[in-house]
C-alpha cells in the first residue's frame, strides 16, 4: 500500500565510519533492505544502496522497475513498507520539524517534468523556493541568487520568459537551476534526458557533471539512457526484478557475464 511518509517513518542511523573502498570517502546516504509494493505487485524487494561523497551514482533499469519510486521514498514523497534510510549521519525520527526541514533542504530533487509553474516567469520560478525557505533575504540578495543560478545553467537571457516559451531542454535546465538555488548537498535527477533530442541530451549530461564540480554535490541519477549513464556515472547500479543485480563502474557492469545486463546494453545500442 502506498502511503505518505511522516517524520517517524524515516529510520536513520549513524553511518558506519568505515570508508568506501572505491571513493575513499564516507557515505552520505545508505539504504538497507528497502521494500515497497503497490497492491500485490512487489516493486522494490529488499534494495541496498549507498551514495558516497562527491560521486554521481546512476540507477539504471527498464521502465516500471522502481527507479523513480526509490528516490521518491528517499525524499519522503512515498513511504516504504519496510527498510531503513541513513542520511547525513542524523536520526530523522528524533528531529524537530525545523531540523527535518533543514535536512530536506540538503537534498535537491530535479523532476522529470521540470515541475515549473507555467503562470510564473523564470525569475519567479527560481525566487519561489528561495523566498519560501529563506525569508530574511533582501531584494538584492534574491536577485543575485537568481542571476547566479541562471548563469550556471547557461540561461541568463530567459529570466523574464515563461516556461511555455522555452524548449524542453531549456525547461530542464531551469528546473535544475531552481533546485540548485538552495545549494543542496545531494542532487536527485529523475530521468534528466527523457524526451530530449540527442544534442540536448549531451548538453544536459555535461550540465550534470558541471553541477557536481561547481557545487561540490553528490548525485543520484535515475535513467534508462545508457548514453547518460556512461557520460555522468562514477558508479552504476542496475535494478532487475526489484533488486540491484550489478553495481560498479559503467565498464565493470557491462563487461560482466550477467545476461540481463548484456541484454540491457545491446537494447540501448551504446557503443
Report what the structure shows:
The protein has 271 residues and is α/β, with parallel strands linked by helices. It has a domain at 116-183. The protein contains nine helices and nine strands. It has helices at residues 67-74, 97-104, 122-133, 139-152, 168-180, 198-215, 226-232, 250-254, 259-268, and strands at 27-38, 41-52, 56-60, 82-87, 107-110, 186-190, 218-223, 235-240, 243-248. Strands 5-6-7-3-8-9 form a six-stranded mixed beta sheet, with helices on both faces. The chain has a three-stranded antiparallel beta sheet with strand order 2-1-4, covered by helices on one side. A hairpin with a 2-residue loop joins strand 1 and strand 2. Helix 3 crosses helix 4, helix 3 runs parallel beside helix 5 and helix 5 (168-180) packs parallel to helix 6 (198-215). The termini are far apart. Mean pLDDT is 84; it is low at 1-25.
Amino acid at each position: 500500500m502506498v502511503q505518505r511518509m511522516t517524520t517517524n517513518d524515516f529510520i536513520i542511523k549513524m553511518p558506519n565510519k568505515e570508508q568506501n573502498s572505491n571513493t575513499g570517502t564516507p557515505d552520505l546516504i545508505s539504504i538497507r533492505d528497502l521494500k515497497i509494493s503497490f497492491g500485490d505487485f512487489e516493486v522494490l524487494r529488499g534494495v541496498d544502496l549507498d551514495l558516497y561523497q562527491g560521486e554521481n551514482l546512476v540507477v539504471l533499469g527498464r521502465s516500471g522497475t522502481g527507479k523513480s519510486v526509490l528516490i521518491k521514498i528517499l525524499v519522503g514523497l512515498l513511504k516504504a513498507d519496510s527498510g531503513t534510510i541513513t542520511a547525513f549521519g542524523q536520526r530523522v525520527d528524533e528531529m524537530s520539524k525545523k531540523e527535518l526541514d533543514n535536512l530536506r533542504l540538503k537534498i535537491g530533487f530535479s523532476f522529470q517534468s521540470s515541475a515549473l509553474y507555467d503562470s510564473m516567469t523564470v525569475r519567479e520560478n527560481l525566487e519561489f523556493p528561495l523566498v519560501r525557505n529563506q525569508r530574511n533575504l533582501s531584494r538584492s540578495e534574491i536577485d543575485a541568487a537568481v542571476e547566479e543560478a541562471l548563469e550556471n545553467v547557461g540561461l541568463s537571457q530567459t529570466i523574464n520568459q515563461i516556461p511555455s516559451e522555452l524548449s524542453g531542454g531549456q525547461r530542464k535546465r531551469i528546473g535544475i537551476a531552481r533546485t540548485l538555488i538552495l545549494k543542496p548537498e545531494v542532487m536527485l535527477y529523475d530521468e534528466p534526458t527523457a524526451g530530449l533530442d540527442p544534442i540536448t541530451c549531451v548538453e544536459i549530461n555535461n550540465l550534470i557533471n558541471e553541477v557536481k564540480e561547481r557545487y561540490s554535490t553528490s548525485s543520484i541519477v535515475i535513467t534508462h539512457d545508457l548514453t547518460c549513464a556512461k557520460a555522468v556515472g562514477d558508479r552504476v547500479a542496475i535494478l532487475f526484478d526489484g533488486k540491484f543485480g550489478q553495481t560498479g563502474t559503467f565498464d565493470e557492469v557491462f563487461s560482466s557475464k550477467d545476461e540481463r545486463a548484456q541484454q540491457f546494453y545491446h537494447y540501448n545500442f551504446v557503443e
